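Chain A, query sequence.
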Amino acid sequence: MNQFLRLLTLPACLAATLVASAQTAQPAQAAQAAQTALPTAAVRNVPEVFFGTTVDDPYRDFEDIKNPTVAAWMKAHSDHARSVLERIPGRKALREAIERFDSAAAARVTDVSRLPGDVFFYERRGAQDDQFKLYMRRGLAGPETVLFDPEALKKQTGKPHAINYYLPSPDGRLVAVGVSAGGSEDAAMRVIDTRTLKQRGPEISRVQFGATAWSPDSRELYFHRMQPLLPGMPKTEKYQRSSAAVMTPGGSEKSIRTLLTAGKDLGILATEFAFFDITPDGRVVASVIDGVSKDFAAWHTTLAALRAGKPAWKKLFDRDDRVSGLTLKGDRVYALTSLGAPRYKLLAGRLDSFNPATAQVLVPEGARVLSGVAAAADALYLEAREGNVKKLFKIAHDDDKGTLREVALPVVGAFALTGGGVRQDLPGAVIDLQGWTRARQYYAVAADGTVSNTGLQPAGPNDMPTYLVATEVLVRSHDGAMVPLSIIHKQGAKLDGSNPTLLYGYASYGITEEPFFSTSRLAWLDVGGVFAVANPRGSGVFGRQWHDDGKQTTKPNTWKDFIACAEWLIAQKWTQPSKLGILGGSAGGILVGRAMTERPDLFAAVIPAVGSLDLVRMETTANGVPNIPEFGTRTKEAGFRGLLAMSTYHQIKDGTRYPAVLFTHGVNDPRVEVWNTTKTAARLMAATSGDKPVLVRLQYDAGHGVGNTKAQTFDEVADRFAFLLWQMGVAGYQP
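Chain A, predicted structure.
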């Protein structure tokens, strides 16, 4: 989801009893015996009536995670889950393999930015590190300097900390860094001097989402800030009435000036967020988003007017213009829009007179999905997706005909024109390129179109496994729609129905599952597993309409498409129901949860990770209000019925034989409240007529997954894979 909660204890003798019973019983019997020894959730139903329909909520009290009874239930079930998972034979070997595959490379690098003067900033996690650190170097071959190490904060506080975002000043002398603790994503921003490595000024709290910008002269730092949640304020206010602000680097809290406030200025709704972008020549764009939609509205002014306190904001476009990408070069505006073009078109015009309705169509809609645009000194760079594979094009700045020149890339896969890889004051681009079977590397695209590896990401021996293949297919869904499915497997995999197969999907917000490489996935493939990735409706693989056909009241298409992919894998003998597992995280919890409740016979195991599982109650949470544009509102009948249909918690039926389920969640999750997991798990335990385990794996020093340490991530992945192999009956993983 698009914004981001955890707790407590129980007698040690109970854990010892569960371990002992698991040692002596058969797998199914052990799971049953252990489950019955655990505290049972009491039913305290709170019915509500919506538009003549009564909706039961038997575990409403689980929403108070500080309630001692609830906290004890959570702790007991979490301890039980960890005990069961750690005792699966082969789990330790999986964990070691995941570590081995990852640490074979000297480091993992992410989020590369560049500045004039051949200066590079990036986050890097060494093979022996548990968390990413912020680095700087001058020249690709220059020595590295560690600017910020969150591990130092963990040593001071005992809590894991992570870098949420960073942005260097244009002169490279300062860098703004957002840091949060325990997976909370409640980032506090600090400014680091890159020469002295000292922090300049105090930490500034509530600076979330990385929406920071520097003035071209590096004298001012602009940022987005959440309002303080004061005692007595409802939690739904957390992401409302935020502001765009400015301060002098190193200034005190009192020096911060508020420039725009949501719910007050420019007609911005209280639930929207205003972010600033500032061009090298002093033009300021305020982009206003709702937190989940790709579409946004925008206003512009000059930096001089903003500094003088007389910004005279002028609107560029409204959200109804369906603009999802924007870049400026001088007084030229380039905007991607899906208005009248579901696969997007590129508009161009002058800043002071730009109107989407009359602007020049520089690149019309075509077979490709236009997915990103960025202006560099030499040209306009455009990313376009064919299926789920990205291609890179450039358009000369003086070309009014929009002639696309393709940049030949060395890897068939995916990249994104985001972050600091493309700058208006530098020619070319730096892109992160990866594929299903090729690890991420950072490539420099020169103005003449040549592409070279920067070497910023050290190559590892497992980064190009030649024994792996990616098979791309289209699967016919319930209504004839053709759904893209990617299957990653070993060469020569037998189609005899014997392959342990994990099917993954997300299908929300128009986010497409593009080719990505995972060293952890190698451990799954290494033991003979097959990994499949679906792009159901709700994703953006085929553009705007594909997303619209899987959101709000059309959301059922997402799990119906996903079920069709599962049935296809079985029909083509990649696998069989007893060896098929499904995984989805966050909004992907809707996908796998509803696939399970619709077709419990189709899967051996289901893993909802930090899953959105109670959609009827979501609107009552801090992050629920910003998500109304994607899922709908229960205050309207159509919206309520859509939410009820996609709510796994409410679709569980008594006396049904459900597959094995492993719920995972961080208790500090600010995006999806942890009670989505605990309520749904309690309901499933009470309803199922089968003997399959329902495990609740909680992390008390983590959240939505953002900022997890390497150890936390690898432990969870090992638990997932071991659980799946156990439930699929694979030899070597049976207790």
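Confidence is low (pLDDT under 50) at residues 1-34. The longest strand covers residues 107-115.
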